[in-house]
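>> received
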Amino acid sequence: MARPAGPVFAEDALRPISALQHLLFCERQCALIHIEGQWAESPLTLEGRHLHERADGPERREVRGDVVIVRGLHLRSLRLGLVGRADVVELHRDPAAGGPVPGLAGCWRPFPVEYKRGSPKPDLCDKVQLAAQAMCLEEMLEVAVPEGALFYGRPRRRCPVRLDARLRRATEQATARLHELLDAGSTPPAEREPKCRRCSLVELCMPGVGTRRSAADWLHQAARHEPAGADDEEG
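>> returned
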């Protein structure tokens, strides 16, 4: 499989794959985390982190017959401008559709598995994150990755994901928007929506209150005990 053509990002311009899910959930949440460095734990985020810690950690391999299970594999795509680490990548021995993998003899077909808490979502945010991992693997190993799976903690089962052209287009569009948002360095104003109830950053975001300011500006001003500016608007 030939390396895909297109512009190449510099190493210092790579963005985390995990930011794609933040972006698709809420662009303001994405900016708070990846521009302003804000974070707050909740029971849901702690559950998700513990689920990932069981699958993640330092890179390690386990051989099960014709399948090699790699945990914590570092991923990178200079074409997409993404970097991250896969929870699990299964390498299936496949002389027909596989390709070479450093450190292994023979041909192997990668199958990424992303671990998530909760249950399957109606939107594409989890699938886009998985597709981004697959596209990184394709660039790194020069072999096609046609499918992967999402493992959800609540039903404790895998959901297979076909990495078709539609999902790949959505992933490339989300990646382009991610770079655009983070390169601009500006946090979008807050808008109260039903999904705000599920966001661990809602207390920092304050949807509906002073939405023209970033959370960092608000915290700095609050520390100085200054009154809110006259230009702030209700959301």
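>> The first strand starts at residue 15 and ends at 16.
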